[in-house]
């Protein structure tokens, strides 16, 4: 009996019948009634009760199924008045009595023996949503499911596992491991395929939800799980086999070493499936088996490397699948005649999967492991009489080149000797593959291969541009030339330009659009690399390009050089390529040469712009980028074109997040389209229209070009773009690119409004060549924030700046991606720098500090978590990348703190105290990057607060002293740097520390291999610290008696050739000693050594500009004290390459 009144049931039943109607008008009316009258705050619970009853009790199978689907959809949907539609759910907002009623109803429907199998599955999905962890416990459900697992009806068993797969916490919370093992064991050994499959899916979900400490207890299940595979194979159960493989891939991604003891058996079985021996398996089954092997390589590379069979297996399988092309088409006629270069590639699924797999595996396993075995096979295949073998060998080399670069880049000549003969292979697909290899290695081995092998690669590719080759080979040769040109230069390309352009112009006369389009792209990239060398071809090419753009239509078999051609509009892309080519050529030849055709081209682009380009017009991206290039070329002359160019670009950049809540069944449909992405949040499937957001990023990038090039002339557009585009982009949580681009755009926009400040307002970081003057100046410890020459800004601009700063800091506090957080910090630093002559408000300093605390807390947690990633189940394959990202972020945070101290000086010290607990924690850790961060922050505090930093010294001096003698050179470097800062900027507070450290610093500069690559920076910093201490305390009674001894010790550390900053101070100090007789009487040996260390530093460009000139002048003075012959002899002892530097400075 229904819990609802008859009238309600009648009304909702009619609406439900309307949903099932084939009549669009009736169905639309039913949807409107449901949305307007029932999916409301007041009635949603009534609707859910009704749908649960219909799903459970209705005798009409169609209405029952529709009710179950609608129930699940509405249960997941956010309440009508919710502001968090991606997180909130109707089912969690129901009163407990109504939830209990719905649960009871659904469970009765589930256990109904008369319920058809497909309806029970839909009921299972509805039940799963009523048993999620964020809902009250439901003990009756677990008991029902456990009973159903024993039922003789396999549909009950399958449906039970289906629910467990969606809500694995049902098992975790209420059953012990022993009981759970028996449940899955029964599922893996069930005699019904669907039960087995769903039990495996449920097992993976359970495993993912289980604490890692319990994983070892369920590993005994793995043999039973894997034993089901041979039966599926022998019975040709392709779909079942594929489904289990997909579940295993999830397990491998989570815990690859779980399979360590079974790995050999798995490799053997997967080999059988992939090779398809005496079986007729579906393509998807074989490619999923290959994906499983690839997943092992990506998630457990060391386990794969230690297995003697894996290398052979992955290489043989990928090479085999890559030969499966042009089946039943020996001459590849269909491929040769295709206009669309992608269509047939999409049909060759096994080949495509194999190529991608080899690429991914090589990136993870590297050349030392893969290359020897791979080349054993390639050398055999490349001389095979079977063209597919030769083709596969070449394409395999293309796929593996990037990952094997560490080994293969040393074998360029051997590779070219093996590959180049196939450029003239009898089969066109082999020629195509040869062009592909040459293009790929031109990218992967750049720029070395351009410098050493252009005389081999370019003639080979040029030979394929001629009419002797078929269209697709010509096009691919032209595409490979793009790869080569991207990393080439004008000097390399110049000898080949005539032949290149002659052949590419011939391609423009071909009768296929895709050939013409590629020729235009190649010409454009060659022009970009050739720069001014391309001027001689400009007058030939531009009229051709302008003619194409002037035509109202183009036909696919049109000769674009023939003025009598009949044209039908079939290729906006060709016109787009002409815009790309003409504007890139214009950039290459420069503004003066461009002026000959500039008016014609600009007028044509204006005409296209005024036509009203639609979002899906293939001409649109070419036109947008073409305008940006012209802006870069014309500079401020482009201002008059902004009203024409900007409106459509700004409209694209204003795009909002297009997000849709979809059903699980719809997800696969959305995922077929590259412009959509599907993610899961709180059990909901969210479809994101990523192509719109990608276009938004591109539009913002182009707006950045205009703002950067035009500066203050772009000012009238800044406020609207900042408020409507850049600042809101920080909230685009579903698209990383939007947030990153928006953040980097903010300071560029502000720069258009805020005049550049005087360099003298940047605070303490001066470089006074007078050591004593510098020492006295830095004792003032104040930043010049009252510079009378600072520019004035309006209140409105100041408000925009404050809004921007606040938005970036708030973004810093919630941003989950370290790489993007780093961009926020870089932008924040640039924003502060724009107004570095103004003191930030206390509110901004406090908010900034709060953001820093949030970042540092997250970093510390991530680093701590990574300690435990490499264990008995996992390999920490991404540790290097993750650590690199955190190290870069810490560096950016250090720069942000530095900037805050620079503009606030001692005023920031109070907020810095809030950071100190975390800095202290970092100091006490064993992680070098955390310790270095802490030392750098401490150094900034001392530099800008001087002796006011003294209260902190007892908290860091013990750690500094221990790190000074650490075996880790990065810690020695950091602690030496801090010591030098102490002497420079707070000599009164740190005298004892600095003077007692001199002997230790001296010892650090004389350790074995002190100047090798690992130790050089640390040694240079120790040397500079000595110089700073000697400078600061040379008049101190505690140092005077030993000053000359320490100077001699320091002098022996020269030359400084590894660090420009330390070199700058060391050579200033050397200059100071020379000018002030700091060495006492200089004998010829000392002078000779001074000459040597100075010229070596000049040659290494460690000292430049005024500093270099000052020390050179001092050296010339002391050389002047010697007999001319002796002085000349000192200058003539250097090798030829250094003699050039000597003559430049001492001629």
Can you put this structure into words, describing what you see?
- InterPro entries: ARM-like (IPR011989), ARM-type_fold (IPR016024), IMB1_TNPO1-like_TPR (IPR058584), Importin_beta (IPR040122), Importin_rep_4 (IPR041653), Importin_rep_5 (IPR040928), Importin_rep_6 (IPR041389), TPR_IPO4/5 (IPR057672).
- Residues 117-269 form the IPO4/5-like TPR repeats domain.
- One of its GO terms (molecular function) is nuclear import signal receptor activity.
- This is TOG domain-containing protein.
- With 1147 residues, this protein is mainly α.
- The protein is 69% helix and 1% strand.
- The chain contains 59 helices and 3 strands.
- A hairpin with a 2-residue loop joins β2 (677-681) and β3.
- The longest helix is centred in the last third of the chain and has 26 residues, at 879-904.
- The termini are far apart.
Q: Can you summarize this structure?
A:
By secondary structure, this protein is an all-alpha fold. The protein is 69% helix and 1% strand.
């Amino acid at each position: 009996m229904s819990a609802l009144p008859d009238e309600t049931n009648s009304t909702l039943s009619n609406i439900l019948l309307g949903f099932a109607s084939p009549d669009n008008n009736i169905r639309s009316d039913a949807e409107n009634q449901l949305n307007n009258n029932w999916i409301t705050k007041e009635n949603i619970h009534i609707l859910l009760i009704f749908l649960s009853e219909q799903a459970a009790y209705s005798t009409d199978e169609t209405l029952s199924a529709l009710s179950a689907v609608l129930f699940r959809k509405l249960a997941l949907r956010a309440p009508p008045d919710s502001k968090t539609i991606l997180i909130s759910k109707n089912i969690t907002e129901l009163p407990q009595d109504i939830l209990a009623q719905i649960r009871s109803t659904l469970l009765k429907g589930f256990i109904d023996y008369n319920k058809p199998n497909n309806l029970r599955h839909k009921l299972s999905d509805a039940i799963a949503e009523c048993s999620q962890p964020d809902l009250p416990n439901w003990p009756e459900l677990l008991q029902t499911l456990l009973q159903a697992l024993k039922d003789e009806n396999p549909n009950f068993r399958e449906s039970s596992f289906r629910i467990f797969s969606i809500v694995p916490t049902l098992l975790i919370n209420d059953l012990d491991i022993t009981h759970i093992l028996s449940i899955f064991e029964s599922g893996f050994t069930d005699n019904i395929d669907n039960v087995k499959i769903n039990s495996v899916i449920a097992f993976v979900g359970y495993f993912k939800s289980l604490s890692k400490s319990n994983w070892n207890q369920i590993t005994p299940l793995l043999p039973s799980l894997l034993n089901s595979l041979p039966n599926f194979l022998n019975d040709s159960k392709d779909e079942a086999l594929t489904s289990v493989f997909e579940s295993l891939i999830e397990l491998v991604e989570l815990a690859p070493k779980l399979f360590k003891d079974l790995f050999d058996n798995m490799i053997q079985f997967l080999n059988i499936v992939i090779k398809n021996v005496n079986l007729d398996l579906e393509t998807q089954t074989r490619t999923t088996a290959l994906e499983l092997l690839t997943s092992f390589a990506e998630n457990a590379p060391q386990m794969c490397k230690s297995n003697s069979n894996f290398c052979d297996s992955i290489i043989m399988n990928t090479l085999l699948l890559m030969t499966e092309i042009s089946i039943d088409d020996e001459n590849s006629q269909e491929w040769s005649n295709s206009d669309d270069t992608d269509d047939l590639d999409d049909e060759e699924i096994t080949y495509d999967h194999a190529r991608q797999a080899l690429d991914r595996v090589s990136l993870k396993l590297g050349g030392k492991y893969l290359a020897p075995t791979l080349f054993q096979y390639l050398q055999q295949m490349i001389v095979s009489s079977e063209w597919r073998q030769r083709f596969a060998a070449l394409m395999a080399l293309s796929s593996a080149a990037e990952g094997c670069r560490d080994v293969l880049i040393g074998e360029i000549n051997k590779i070219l000797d093996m590959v180049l003969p196939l450029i003239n292979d009898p089969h066109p697909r082999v020629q195509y593959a040869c062009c592909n290899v040459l293009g790929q290695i031109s990218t992967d081995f750049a720029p070395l291969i351009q410098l050493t092998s252009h005389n081999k690669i370019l003639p080979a590719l040029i030979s394929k541009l001629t009419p002797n080759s078929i269209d697709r080979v010509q096009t691919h040769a032209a595409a490979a030339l793009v790869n080569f040109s991207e990393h080439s230069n004008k000097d390399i390309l110049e000898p080949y330009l005539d032949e290149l352009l002659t052949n590419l112009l011939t391609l423009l006369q071909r009768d296929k659009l895709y050939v013409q389009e590629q020729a235009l792209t190649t010409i454009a990239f060659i022009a970009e690399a050739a720069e001014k060398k391309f001027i001689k071809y400009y007058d030939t090419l531009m009229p051709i390009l302008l003619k194409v753009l002037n035509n109202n239509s183009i036909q696919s078999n049109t000769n674009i050089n023939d003025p009598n051609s009949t044209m039908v509009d079939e290729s906006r892309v060709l016109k787009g390529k002409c815009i790309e080519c003409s504007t890139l050529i214009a950039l290459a030849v420069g503004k003066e040469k461009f002026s000959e055709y500039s008016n014609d081209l600009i007028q044509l682009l204006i005409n296209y712009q005024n036509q009203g380009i639609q979002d899906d017009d293939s001409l649109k991206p070419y036109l947008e980028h073409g305008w940006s290039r012209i802006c870069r070329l014309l500079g401020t002359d482009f201002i008059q074109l902004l009203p024409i160019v900007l409106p459509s670009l700004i409209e694209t950049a204003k795009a909002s997040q297009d997000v849709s809540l979809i059903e699980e069944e719809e997800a696969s449909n959305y995922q077929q389209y590259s412009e959509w992405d599907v993610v899961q949040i709180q059990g909901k499937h969210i479809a994101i229209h990523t192509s719109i957001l990608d276009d938004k990023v591109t539009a913002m990038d182009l707006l950045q070009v205009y703002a950067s090039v035009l500066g203050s002339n772009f000012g009238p557009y800044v406020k609207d773009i900042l408020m409507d585009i850049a600042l809101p982009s920080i909230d685009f949580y579903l698209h990383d690119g939007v947030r990153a681009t928006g953040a980097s755009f903010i300071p560029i926009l502000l720069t258009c409004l805020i005049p550049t400040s005087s360099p003298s307002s940047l605070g303490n970081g001066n470089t006074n060549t007078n050591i004593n003057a510098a020492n006295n100046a830095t004792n003032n410890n104040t930043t010049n924030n009252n510079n009378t020459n600072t520019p004035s800004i309006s209140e409105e601009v100041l408000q925009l700046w404050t809004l921007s700063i606040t938005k970036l800091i708030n973004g810093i506090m919630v941003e989950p991606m370290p790489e993007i957080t780093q961009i926020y910090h870089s932008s924040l630093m640039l924003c502060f720098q724009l107004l570095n002559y103004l003191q930030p408000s206390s509110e901004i300093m406090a908010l900034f500090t709060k953001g820093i605390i949030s970042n540092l807390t997250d970093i510390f947690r991530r680093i701590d978590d990574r300690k435990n990633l490499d264990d008995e189940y996992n390999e920490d394959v991404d540790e290097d990348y993750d650590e690199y990202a955190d190290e870069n972020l810490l560096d950016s945070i250090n720069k942000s703190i530095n900037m805050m101290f620079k503009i606030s000086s001692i005023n920031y010290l109070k907020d810095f105290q809030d950071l100190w607990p975390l800095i202290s924690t970092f100091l006490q850790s064993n992680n070098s990057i955390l310790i270095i961060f802490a030392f750098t922050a401490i150094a900034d505090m001392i530099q800008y607060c001087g002796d006011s930093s003294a209260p902190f010294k007892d908290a860091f001096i013990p750690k500094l002293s221990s790190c000074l003698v650490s075996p880790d050179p990065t810690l020695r470097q950091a602690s030496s740097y801090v010591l030098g800062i102490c002497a420079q900027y707070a000599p009164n507070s740190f005298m004892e520390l600095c003077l007692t450290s001199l002997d230790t610093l001296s010892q650090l500069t004389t350790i074995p291999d002190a100047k090798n690559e690992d130790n050089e920076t640390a040694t240079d910093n120790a040397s500079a610290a000595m110089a700073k201490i000697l400078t600061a305390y040379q008049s101190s009674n505690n140092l005077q008696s030993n000053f000359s001894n320490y100077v001699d010790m320091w002098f022996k550390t020269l030359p400084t050739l590894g660090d420009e900053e330390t070199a700058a101070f060391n050579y200033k100090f050397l200059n100071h000693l020379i000018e002030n007789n700091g060495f006492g009487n200089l004998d010829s040996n000392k002078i000779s050594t001074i000459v040597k260390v100075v010229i070596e530093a000049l040659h290494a460009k460690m000292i430049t500009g005024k500093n270099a000139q000052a020390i050179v002048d001092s050296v010339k003075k002391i050389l002047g004290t010697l007999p001319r012959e002796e002085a000349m002899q000192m200058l003539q002892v250097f090798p030829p390459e250094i003699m050039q530097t000597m003559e430049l400075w001492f001629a």
